[in-house]
Design brief:
Structural class: alpha+beta
Distance between the termini: 28 Å
Helix content: 10-25%
Strand content: 5-15%
Number of domains: 2
Amino acid sequence: MFFNQRPAAVLDARVLIEMTINPESLLRVPRGPAVLVQGGWRTFLVEVRNEAHTTAPLAFRSPQGGSMGRKSSLAITGVHDFTNGVVDEMEARSRWIGLAGYDA
């Protein structure tokens, strides 16, 4: 049953926001069919329909998606020193989202 569905139909169920950029470069951002559920790990998509054919990169950010610490200046490349982080424990608890973009 799963393999008979179109790939777009499978992904559509994970769309949280459907962003449309119209030919006048105005944004329309309705909610998608995905439902947020508290607790656990969920993966959602933001679908962008670029009817204006703009080529500028789409940038996004969230206060909840900030760094949990800082890279140590003496650390090996790619290793994070979270014991000497720039955020306190309360601030770290409010950072609960991981953001990643894909440019097709």
